[in-house]
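Section 3.1: Structural characterization of target chains.
Under the original work plan, the team committed to producing a structural model for every single-chain target entering the pipeline before any wet-lab resources were allocated. The record below documents one such target. The sequence was received from the expression subgroup and is listed exactly as submitted; it comprises 379 residues.
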Amino acid sequence: MSKKLVFLFLGTAIFFLFPKNALLANDKPQEAMDRVRLFSIKVLEKSLKSENAFIRSAAARAVGESEDYELIPLLKKAATDSYHTTRLFALQGIKKISLDEARVMSVQMTQDLNVWVRGSAIQILGELGDGSLENIIRPHIKSPDRTVRYAAAGALFKLGDESQLGILLDGLKGGSSIDRYQAIGYLGKLDDEKVIPYLEGLLEGDEDEIIFYTLKAIGKKAGKGILPHLLSLTEHPNPSLRYQSALILGELKGALGLKVLRSLCSDEDAMVRLSAAVALARKKSGHCNEIFSAMIKDSDYGIRSTTARVLGELEIPSREQLLSMALMDSNIRVRTSATRAVGMMGGANAFPLLLRKLEDSQEVVRTYAAGNIIKLMNK
């Protein structure tokens, strides 16, 4: 967001949001911006020191969302936190900001005590596409932890060792359900057309959970060849399969699936209706946008929260109005989702909305507001 646009809002926003701070209210625009940035950084620093592990992990994620290189030292410190989710979010945040820093940190964190952190570090190394990292990744193929083995196989595949695909394919054939779910997930992360036939084959099975995770793994990689499967699954008695199929229909190019998606806007299940509306919005259809207005007022806070989250990515006419409503929701989860969604929305109008959330009653909301304010100020 340009500084000129920020200046348009900053004076009045500061006056109303920080009435007790006369110095801030009397600042010149640039000085006021500097103070808002400093205030936001202090919010993040405080949250990273919280005794509540959930707040610390949210703070690590919020710092990553700021996309601010100057805040990498905060993430490096968070990467040593006692709580594994905080370390994981810190590593992912560093990757968002700097691939060079992510490389260094990922090499270190391949030795982390937590399997998910190790797996994420290995996965990032594979995504960097640097063959010199192979010697760091390859020993993890023999890890006793399935998550780490799959991450290593996927990373080596991305570095050109296609023989590693067999490890993930073997994971589909037997073992526990969790083993198969993870194999499906890592196949999806390969982002390679070679895996699509294997994933599509799983859609012909009769295990709902396997089909659900397979649809998630296919995601944006779906081509029109999957259309018959999707059309069939939109009539499945399991609403989870109907809504996941609807989302993938939204990824197909052109008018494919439009008629079915419009019919799903009247589905008996709220998540199916919402997913159909999301898919149509992604296709720039303009149909069923009224569903978002209904869902943001739904009695189920989970539905309201999910609606707020997806509005961050959807360019529909009522987006700002609906997110403004969600920011005032009585439920902390809804307000958190809305705050992050406003940051995704961006633009001049997002700035005053996020400023208000710096005074939210809940620390997690203030934390995400701070991270996204910094991101907007850097645009």
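The first helix runs from residue 3 to 17.
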